[in-house]
């Protein structure tokens, strides 16, 4: 596995966490864990809660680079990346455009479909959408979710036609943009991608087995009954097919640094379907990228250090110190 390069100094490092999104609680846990891991490797790391502190203060802190441990809006969607570009502070993860696209599930699907990549059929829902046409196109059950949220927030599995209105109402509390998506029965998998020596590489797949087959917010972060299998148990040929599909989806959106692609392997024919791409994945005790990294021989601490070393800008003229 990848050996972490020794660097003379990474300078003063800010770990951006917390934020103002609906995923703040998870980000607080991620950020604290990342900061402690970096400190254990001798990095001069400091927590910076963008939900409490004015992000404009980042420049006053004179951070030489930052680790983005923010999830959701204002941290994962290109907003923070754009501010850091203006301040010329190198940051981890994808750049402005790729972050914004990956956060938008509808735009992500449009690009994947344009590239010939498999993703479940969908409809952009409106308050006055014809439920009959939606059902005719997608069938039942179907999934309704906000277009710009993560962690399955606001998601509903609609099993009957009369549930669609309530599902839309819930999703629209989180976002003005809502999509209905074809439900595909099959195995839930996730593929972590990490750039090593400048080249994106897929890590071992993780199979997710949630209670009642419901991988919701609670089961994702707070329920120890959710099971994660890594190795995932698939044959080598099928796993490689899924990993290559995930890698293509990552490259199609122009991502960099790292990411995590969620996939469904359809039970009827073992065909993979791309669900979404997380450009700033969780780094908690329940998170999946660290789990896949461990399987590949990379400790949590070295994963954090590798990500930090990859911090960069869309526009590479760094600020003058």
TrEMBL record:
Binds 2 magnesium or manganese ions per subunit. GO terms for biological process: cell wall organization; peptidoglycan biosynthetic process; regulation of cell shape. GO terms for molecular function: ATP binding; D-alanine-D-alanine ligase activity; metal ion binding. Pathway: Cell wall biogenesis; peptidoglycan biosynthesis. Its EC number is 6.3.2.4. Keywords: ATP-binding, Cell shape, Cell wall biogenesis/degradation, Cytoplasm, Ligase, Magnesium, Manganese, Metal-binding, Nucleotide-binding, Peptidoglycan synthesis. It catalyses: 2 D-alanine + ATP = D-alanyl-D-alanine + ADP + phosphate + H(+). Belongs to the D-alanine--D-alanine ligase family. GO terms for cellular component: cytosol. This is D-alanine--D-alanine ligase. Mg(2+) 2 binds at residues 276, 278. Mg(2+) 1 binds at residues 262, 276. Its main location: cytoplasm. It is found in: Cytoplasm. The active site is at residues 23, 151, 287. Its cofactor is Mn(2+); Mg(2+).
């Amino acid at each position: 596995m990848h050996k972490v390069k020794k660097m003379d100094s990474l300078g003063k490092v800010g770990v951006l966490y917390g934020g103002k999104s609906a995923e703040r609680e998870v980000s607080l846990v991620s950020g604290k864990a990342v900061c402690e891991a970096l400190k254990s490797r001798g990095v001069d790391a400091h927590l910076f809660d963008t939900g409490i502190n004015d992000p404009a203060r980042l420049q006053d802190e004179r951070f030489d680079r930052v680790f983005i441990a923010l999830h959701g809006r204002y941290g994962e969607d290109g907003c923070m990346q754009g501010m850091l570009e203006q301040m010329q502070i190198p940051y981890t993860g994808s750049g402005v455009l790729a972050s914004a696209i990956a956060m938008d599930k509808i735009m992500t699907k449009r690009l994947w479909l344009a590239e010939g990549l498999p993703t479940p059929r969908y409809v952009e829902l409106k308050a006055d959408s014809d439920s009959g046409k939606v059902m005719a196109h997608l069938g039942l059950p179907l999934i309704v979710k906000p277009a710009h949220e993560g962690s399955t927030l606001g998601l509903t599995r609609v099993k009957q036609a009369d549930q669609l209105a309530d599902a839309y109402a819930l999703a629209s509390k989180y976002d003005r943009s809502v999509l209905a998506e074809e439900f595909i029965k099959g195995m839930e998998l996730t593929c972590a991608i990490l750039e090593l020596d400048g080249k994106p590489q897929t890590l071992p797949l993780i199979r997710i087995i949630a209670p009642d087959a419901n991988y919701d917010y609670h089961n994702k972060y707070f329920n120890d009954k959710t099971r994660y299998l890594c190795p995932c148990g698939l044959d080598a040929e099928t796993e490689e097919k899924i990993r290559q599909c995930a890698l293509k989806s990552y490259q199609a959106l122009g991502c960099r640094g790292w990411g995590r692609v969620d996939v469904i392997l359809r039970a009827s024919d073992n065909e993979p379907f791309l669900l979404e791409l997380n450009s700033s994945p969780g780094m908690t005790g329940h998170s999946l990228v660290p789990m896949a990294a461990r399987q590949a021989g990379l400790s949590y601490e070295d994963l954090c250090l590798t990500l930090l070393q990859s911090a960069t800008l869309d526009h590479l003229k760094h600020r003058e110190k």
